[in-house]
Amino acid sequence: MEIKKFARIRFTRSMLAPLATAVFVGCGLGGPTSTESPPAEATALPLPPAVAAAVPGPVREERQAHSATLLTDGRVLVAGGYDRSLYTMATSELFDPSTGLWSPTGSLAQARAEHAVTLLSDGRVLVAGGRDSGYAPIASAEVYDPATGEWSPYGSMVSRRFGHAAVVLADGGIMIMGGQVEASTIGSLVEGVDALASTETFDQNARAGTPAAAMTQGHSGHGATALADGRVLVAGGLRVVMPMVAAGAEVYDPATKEWSLTGTMIRTTHAHTVTLLPDGSVILLGGFAGGGASSSAELYDPSTDTWVSAGKMSAERMLHSATLLDDGRVLATGGTNRRGNVAAAELYDPATGTWSPAGDMAGGRARHTATLLRDGRVLVVGGSDASTEIYDPATGVWTSSGP
């Protein structure tokens, strides 16, 4: 096979800034380019002691490509990501739905974005991989302890990777899949880079990854979910990052420890979402397909190994979010398309197979997070600015997350 040469394209930070919410997950376009070296990590200026404990309203720092995790006590941990200037962040924050207040918490030992996050069975939070302050792929892992509010190193994966996915298996192991390791220098595009087909299982006790069966093809910027029968579905993403070539879907069977391709997807896509529904099927929404963001939706039925249409959303979306609500509906929020960032939200009802509007957020956003809270509401964080909003399915109303 011919090895393609590197093709570098230099960007200035001002050129890259408008792309902050339009870059593709795992495509190596996450960071700014400039002649100066980026800081080791991007942190906020310290707040005066009087307000350092907790503040209402939005998060302190703008961030995107971060993680948000619902803790066992009902709070939400937001960690890492890129700031407005696309520098990688190490800071973390906590949101308390009972008070509507944000408060600072311990910072990551290593700044990272485009990482994978997993809530462990003991209530701690594991982050693995991502891109560091120099935008290079990393293999390190860290764990956050809500009891102490601190992060600590937690071993390492086998491979450096970003734009990957992590799923908890039925036996408690964590399967880490795909991503990208050839990040190139800041502001460069690399021709001929393949996404990773490798997988590994991360052992919480050993604090290390162990190589697992490789997927049939590489996937970066893909979607993944554990199925009701214990298998794992990986759908879409890129198998060749530059030029962009989309990947299909495949399933991992823990019993045989093998991957196999599923039935053919209706549209191959990346920067989309996949969500497991109560009936065991999986819905895939939007993404980049056919030269632009897509409004299509499709359902995967594990029992028949087939994909069928689930209609179309009212807005084309990629780099959006999808959240399963307590009543079984799916809330799609934000994203970006050729017209800019999307503010509109909409709901899919699996019982009727129909879409309905869910109001508009205060502004468009992409590469944000949308977390289901214990009371059934949805917290939306970051993506385009420091604003945070909450959607209440009972009323269909969006409000600021402040009191």
How does this model look, in words?
Helices cover 1% and strands 41% of the residues. The chain is built from 1 helix and 35 strands. The protein has one helix at 13-16; strands at 55-56, 67-70, 76-79, 92-96, 101-105, 116-119, 125-128, 138-145, 150-161, 165-168, 174-177, 193-194, 199-203, 208-212, 223-226, 232-235, 238-242, 245-246, 249-253, 258-261, 273-276, 282-285, 288-289, 292-301, 306-317, 321-324, 330-333, 336-337, 340-341, 344-349, 354-360, 369-372, 378-381, 388-392, 397-400. The strands form 9 sheets. It has a 5-stranded antiparallel β-sheet with strand order 1-5-4-3-2, with no helix packed on it. Strands 21, 22, 23, 24 and 25 form a 5-stranded antiparallel β-sheet that branches. The chain is globular, with a radius of gyration of 20 Å. Mean pLDDT is 85; it is low at 1-53 and 184-189.
Could you give a quick summary of the protein structure above?
The protein has 403 residues and is an all-beta fold. The chain has one helix at residues 13-16; strands at residues 55-56, 67-70, 76-79, 92-96, 101-105, 116-119, 125-128, 138-145, 150-161, 165-168, 174-177, 193-194, 199-203, 208-212, 223-226, 232-235, 238-242, 245-246, 249-253, 258-261, 273-276, 282-285, 288-289, 292-301, 306-317, 321-324, 330-333, 336-337, 340-341, 344-349, 354-360, 369-372, 378-381, 388-392, 397-400. Strands 1-5-4-3-2 form a 5-stranded antiparallel beta sheet, with no helix packed on it. Strands 21, 22, 23, 24 and 25 form a 5-stranded antiparallel beta sheet that branches. Strands 6-7-8-9 form a 4-stranded antiparallel beta sheet, with no helix packed on it.
